[in-house]
Design brief:
The chain is an alpha+beta fold. It has two domains: 97 residues, Alpha-Beta Plaits; 197 residues. Helix content is 64%, strand content 10%. Keywords: Membrane, Transmembrane, Transmembrane helix.
């Protein structure tokens, strides 16, 4: 279930209340008249079935509540109520399968922005990857995978492609095109400093075996990226965010960026080149698979919407 809060102009309140009252996916409808201060108006609250959320939000946006008032959604972990159970039963489909597109846009839009926090995480992840490469530590490589924040912009690009949102694609593209080069440059400097001070020897990668998978690009790399992108988008659209950790661990994006810098300092330009190619293959595979999942889910959801009435009493 999701908790819906809508700030509504008084002249629209009765229309909104009537719509929510008659919608099968709505429970616990509450109206607070005259309590909203900025913008002024009434506050309408309801618990709605996740599988009905997209339809309800679209209807409220059609009444211009997103402009003249405000609409917020919040996930409910527990709802003990016969009315809530009835709403979930009446709403078509399963909550875990439902895509709330406005929620997805908001989430990917926020995670796709380049900012100091995003850059800091990406730098730390690349540095961890470089340490893992030099020390031949697969565990450290896995840690770098988990820390890396790059899936957010990649998911945003997929959403932008499917919904034709150029602004989202551009914002996410900036995050990646700025984030990775900056992180790789910082990593390069750190590796050079470590080599000059004798903290570690980049040439140690010649004998590494446990982390060789980082630069060994091939068909399997692309297949793994496709599977990871599909799993990641399924996790984002079904509120099963715990699965994202597995996605982070399965793709070789940040490790490849770190390996490329270590290999460059060591003079192993072949491995540096393969690492950069590995990075690009993984980025492309994730975006393609994530977009494909969204297209399938959107088509399925649109087909389901055509087969049901907008509301039921």
């Amino acid at each position: 279930m999701l908790h819906l809060r809508a700030v509504c102009p008084p002249e629209r309140t009765d229309e909104v209340v009537e719509f929510l009252r008659t919608h099968a996916g709505t429970a616990h409808l509450v109206v607070h008249r005259g309590v909203a201060v900025q913008p002024e108006g009434d506050l309408i609250e309801a618990d709605i079935a996740r599988e009905a959320a997209d339809e309800i939000v679209d209807a409220l946006c059609a009444l211009h509540l997103d402009r003249s008032g405000g609409i917020t959604l919040e996930a409910l972990d527990t709802a003990l109520s016969d009315a809530a159970d009835a709403a979930e039963e009446a709403a078509p489909g399963e909550g875990a399968d439902a895509v709330v597109w406005q929620e997805l846009l908001g989430r990917t839009g926020e995670e796709s922005r380049w900012n100091l926090t995003f850059q800091a995480f990406l730098v730390i992840a690349c540095l961890l990857a470089a340490v893992g490469v030099v020390t031949d530590s697969a565990v450290t490589i896995v840690g770098a995978m988990v820390v890396g924040p790059e899936f957010g912009p990649l998911a945003a690009i997929a959403v932008g492609l499917v919904l034709r949102r150029r602004d989202l694609i551009a914002r996410a593209g900036v995050a990646l095109l700025v984030g990775f080069p900056v992180s790789m440059a910082v990593t390069l400097g750190a590796v050079l400093l470590g080599s000059a001070t004798g903290v570690f020897d980049p040439s140690a990668i010649v004998g590494n075996h446990a982390v060789d998978f980082v630069y060994q690009v091939g068909v399997a790399s692309f297949v793994v990226a496709l599977l990871a992108g599909a799993a990641g988008m399924l996790a984002m659209t079904s509120a099963k965010s715990a699965a994202l950790v597995g996605v982070f661990i399965s793709v070789t994006t940040v490790p490849a960026a770190g390996y490329a810098m270590v290999a460059a300092v060591a003079g192993r330009w072949d491995r540096a080149g393969y690492s950069v190619l590995q990075l690009l293959v993984n980025l492309l595979g994730i975006v393609l698979a994530a977009a494909a999942v969204l297209l399938v889910r959107r088509r399925k959801q649109s087909s389901a919407a055509l087969r049901r009435p907008l509301s039921s009493g």
